[in-house]
TrEMBL record:
First-listed, main subcellular location of the protein, grouped into a coarse class: cytoplasm
Active-site residues, record numbering mapped to chain: C127
CDD domains referenced in this protein's UniProt entry, alphabetically: DSP (cd14498)
One matching Pfam family: DSPc
Protein name: AGAP002108-PB
Family affiliation: Belongs to the protein-tyrosine phosphatase family. Non-receptor class dual specificity subfamily.
Tyrosine-protein phosphatase domain mapped to chain residues: 36-183
SMART domains: DSPc
Length: 375
């Protein structure tokens, strides 16, 4: 078979016995495995970590009384496993690349493992080789269960399966998970930037914002809300609310040398060639979550340019990779955006992707007085 790495195409057999050619909507499954010999290790009583060969071998599963399988792979397991009456199989589609978003699955995967073990079902967590993707899921579970940091949880798993090695992007997602107290905190600034960088990578490929990334676009703060935020930024010309303080993505000044205006770097953003996202988040010097801001009063944040989250009133961001931001009421230019290239702040920090308001075009208001109902 000429498919890559054991990925088989499922074909239909009609009543005449003639095999049809694959159709465009053909489902891919992993029938021919080349993950090497069966390999699995027991991390905790009843909880196993292994490769795809172990997950596809019924004899191995029966020998270890495994009844639940968490599969973290690009394609599902063969049908003789997924359709087995005595097995509960959950598939997380994921590639072993640093930019893969595994952190969004941590809560569901932790619940699947915990529920299965509580029911007395032994669990196998696997990916292709049982080294990176499945190890990441296992470490996240150990972190959450025992309230451990990444390094302690990693060493705990490595003591049972010596060659586990999450890729650098997964390592930084696990560290971020620990900083968020083992839950997905969508208000955490590091997490928001992480999601934005993933969205930027997707926009670069698709030339527009994909549906699965729409969550990074936040509601329009200028539209009537039941509990509007008291601290907002308005268009200086028409006083239309264009951002709330919680929409700011703060950063520390990179240097004392200040330019006069923001400039596009013209370079590919950090992390575009597979470098880990977490390290690039730190290089961008984005501040930690809002709860930590009070402890950073001795290190003032840059106020040369207001970098913010993408907002619903920015209609051009859905179909363009870069452009200008205009007030939705009076249409005066307020700033610019760029999904695919880093934008340099006058302080020297580079932010990717970037959505910014020019301070001279906006004003800070401490009281919401006339929040518009429509744009």
């Amino acid at each position: 078979m000429s498919m890559n790495e054991g990925i088989a195409v499922v074909t239909k057999v009609v009543s005449t016995g003639v095999r049809r050619a694959p159709e465009p909507a053909t489902v891919l499954t992993r029938e021919d495995l080349d993950a090497g010999p069966v390999s699995l290790d027991e991390i905790e009583p009843g909880l196993w970590l292994g490769n795809a060969s172990a997950a596809a071998d019924v004899g191995t599963l029966e020998r270890h009384t495994i009844r639940s399988i968490l599969s973290v792979d690009s394609v599902p397991l063969p049908v003789h496993i997924t359709d087995h009456p005595n097995l509960r199989v959950r598939h997380i589609q994921a590639a072993d690349v640093p930019r893969e978003d595994l952190i969004r699955h941590f809560e569901d995967s932790n619940r699947f493992i915990a529920d299965s073990l509580a029911e007395g079902r032994h669990v196998l967590v696997h990916c292709y080789f049982g080294v990176s993707r499945s190890a990441t899921i296992m470490i996240a579970y150990i972190m959450q269960k025992y309230r451990l940091g990444y390094e302690a949880a990693f060493q705990r798993v490595k003591a049972k399966r010596r060659f586990v090695m999450p890729n650098p992007g997964f390592v930084n997602q696990l560290k971020l998970y620990g900083r968020m107290a083992y839950r997905i905190d969508r208000t955490n600034e590091r997490y928001k930037l992480f999601r934005l960088r993933l969205a930027g990578d997707n926009v670069r490929k698709a030339k527009r914002l994909p549906t699965e990334c729409m969550d990074v676009v936040k509601p329009d703060p200028g539209v009537t809300q039941e509990s509007p935020e008291p601290y907002v930024y308005r268009c200086r010309k028409c006083r239309r609310v264009v951002a709330s303080r919680s929409n700011l993505l703060l950063h520390k000044p990179k240097s004392a040398t200040v330019a006069q205006s923001p400039a596009k770097s013209g370079s590919r953003p950090h992390g575009a060639d597979g470098e880990n996202l977490g390290e690039k988040v730190r290089r961008c010097s984005i501040s930690s979550e809002h709860s930590n801001r009070s402890s950073e009063k001795d290190t003032p944040m840059c106020n040369k340019i207001f970098f913010i989250e993408p907002l619903a009133w920015m209609t051009d961001i859905y179909r363009n990779t870069q452009g200008r931001l205009y007030c939705p009421k009076c249409t005066v230019k307020l700033g610019s955006f760029n999904w695919v290239m880093a934008t340099k702040c006058p302080c020297g920090a580079e932010i990717f992707p970037a959505f910014y308001l020019v301070p001279s075009k906006t004003e800070y208001s401490t009281v919401v007085q006339n929040v518009q109902v429509t744009v």
